[in-house]
Amino acid sequence: MTEKEKKDQEDLAPESIEEGLYDELTGQDNAGQDAEFLKTQLELKEKEVAEHYNNYLRALADLENYKKRAARERADLVKYGHENLLRDFLPILDSLDRAMEAACGSDNMEAFQEGLALVRNQFLGCLEKYGVEPVAACGLDFDPNVHEAMLEVESDSHEDRQVVDEYQKGYLYQGRLLRPAKVSVCRRRK
């Protein structure tokens, strides 16, 4: 290399250094702007996270309140669930009271029996309203799902395993057995 070339390189070197410094300074300014931008973005995200966390806490509190309210409603349903049924029984009780008063003041047994039949029909109507119905028994084939055999009777006038007599009525509630009918069942003589 000639001296002239060396001198040219030396002349260029300080300019290159100054340009490098300028670039670095400019880069630092960009980095400062980037840092400021990132800091702003971080603050926004922190606010967003805090908002989501608050929404989560509110939803959790709402869920707990719902659970408590549902438990209270279930307890009230158990506690007061039979209120309508009992309210419908009250007129029947009133009718029985009137029948008792009438029986005490009168010697007419026929009127008393008619009154009791009316009260019985009123009570059966109330039971039917709530889905209680009697189990059919006499004259039907014995069904262990709805009948309870109390005894077997030998007879030629009935079919084998046919219900002959009913000792206690059975009842279904909404199609489900509430109480089986207690019956006697025919066994054919051999």
SSE order and pairing:
Elements: H1 3-80, H2 83-105, H3 109-129, E1 132-134, E2 147-154, E3 163-168, E4 171-173, E5 176-179, E6 181-187
Parallel strand pairs: 2-6
Antiparallel strand pairs: 1-4, 3-6, 4-5
Number of domain units: 3
Q: Give the integer mean of the pLDDT values.
A: 82
Query: Whole-number radius of gyration?
Result: 47 Å
Q: Strand order across the biggest sheet?
A: 1-4-5
Distance between the termini: 140 Å
Helix content: 55-70%
**Uncertain spans:** none
Tell me what portion of residues adopts beta-strand conformation.
Answer: 15-25%
Shape: elongated
Largest sheet: 3 strands, antiparallel
- Listing every helix as H and every strand as E from the N terminus to the C terminus, the arrangement reads HHHEEEEEE
Number of strands: 6
Structural class: alpha+beta
Question: How many DSSP H or I helices?
Answer: 3
